Amino acid sequence: MSESLAKAEHGPESGHVPPKLVDDVRVSLYHVHLPKLDDADVVRFDADRSRLSRGPNFDVLVPYLRFASEHEARSHLSAAD
């Protein structure tokens, strides 16, 4: 997951993601983002076992994820023009 997010952050067209960026994303996920999503019941994050699953509020987030994904796709298409 860290590498995919780092690639999206760095720019998927580059093909190469610096290992330091992957590490930074992993640390940020583990210590900041996943605990916050767990607190909001969007995911269940068990840091001790490195397990991640959907939480009871996950479906509330789905429309926002779809919107963000569609917006990003449109941005990439217009940038290619």
Nearest-integer average pLDDT:
87
**Which outline best applies?**
flat
The total count of strands amounts to: 2
Major sheet: order of its strands?
1-2
Largest sheet: number of strands, sense, barrel closure: 2 strands, antiparallel
Enumerate how many helices there are, as a single number.
Answer: 3
Number of domains: 1
Strand content: 5-15%
- Percent helix, as a range, is 55-70%
Structural class given helices, strands, pairing? mainly alpha
Through-space gap between termini: 30 Å
Series of H and E elements: HHEEH
Low-pLDDT windows of residues: none
As an assembly, this protein is single chain
Structure in words:
- The protein is mainly alpha-helical and 81 residues long.
- It has one domain.
- The chain is built from three helices and two strands; from the N terminus they run ααββα.
- It has helices at 2-10, 19-39, 58-80, and strands at 43-46, 51-54.
- It has a two-stranded antiparallel ribbon with strand order 1-2.
- A hairpin with a 4-residue loop joins strand 1 and strand 2.
- The longest helix is centred in the C-terminal third of the chain and has 23 residues, at 58-80.
- It is flat.
- The chain starts with a helix and ends with a helix.
Question: What's the layout of helices and strands?
Answer:
Layout: H1 2-10, H2 19-39, E1 43-46, E2 51-54, H3 58-80
